[in-house]
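On clarity, I found the account of how folds are encoded harder to follow than it need be. An entry of this sort, consisting of the sequence and the corresponding backbone structure tokens, reads as follows:
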Amino acid sequence: MTATADQAADAGADKGAATDTGADAGADTGAQEAARFHALLRTFEGRAAATAGQGKDPVNQPMIRHWCEAMGDANPAYTGPDAIAPPTMLQAWTMGGLSGHGDRSSAYDELLALLDGAGCTSVVATDCEQEYLRPLRPGDTVTYDAVIESVSPRKTTKLGTGHFVTTRMDVRADGELAGTHRFRILKYAPAAAREKKPAARRPRPVVNRDNQGFWDGVAEHKLLIQRCTGCGTLRFPWLPGCNACASLDWDTVEASGAGTVFSYVVMHHPPFPAFDPPYAVALVELAEGVRMVSNITGVPYDKVRIGMPVRLEFLRADEDLELPVFRGSEG
């Protein structure tokens, strides 16, 4: 018996419908499993993440000074006999350092173990929120409790698929609520590595009449700093006038090339075709006293440290672009 064309088409349609139905059923099963797992994770919401924790040190002036120096914050409220701690130091007084605190709850460890078991073995801190209720002062004893506030449904990010876990820490000073710190992490299963595309060209710097001399210096492997001829103030980046005395007259001095890392960040996201994250971007303090933003080369991104000595070098990014960068040393 020979099937007609119409019968063959109907059979093909039936087979396609069956395939679609199977795919839909698989998707439904996956969604149901994800919902069941999320329901299990949510049973940890409201459970303690840390109980009766205590800061390793009372609020103290040396730590406040170190913080302010690192941040470049010269607010007089943070010095003197009536000093307070910068509000953003709230979490600093609760940190356990390399030795830890030992006050983390078993519930938090169980939650992380569940996520590990589901393949979410990687972790990244995503954001934090702080609320300040009263200032911390030198001599205050800091105590805290933390709770698992929320666990998100499964989310897919460029890093991978996983769950956001938010903890809320209530920080007290001598028993009085001083502030609240919310901290969020993503526990995720890393996404499969994507095939790298050919490297794209870096963005071109905007060169104009105000900074042309700087880029002319770079072309000659010189890092030129503007100097006001009116008051002698050095300035960087290049500006048309002095921000100290408003003079429009200036000349240049060549930087020695020596510097130190004043501050830095490690860039993971957002991705950009011309760059290969993670990489370190630093605010470098030159020996001459001015600061500039540049990349750190010569050391892994996770070895860059504040205070690290660096030395100027010039990076050939492509055939048309050369940039001043700074080489660090792990030694």
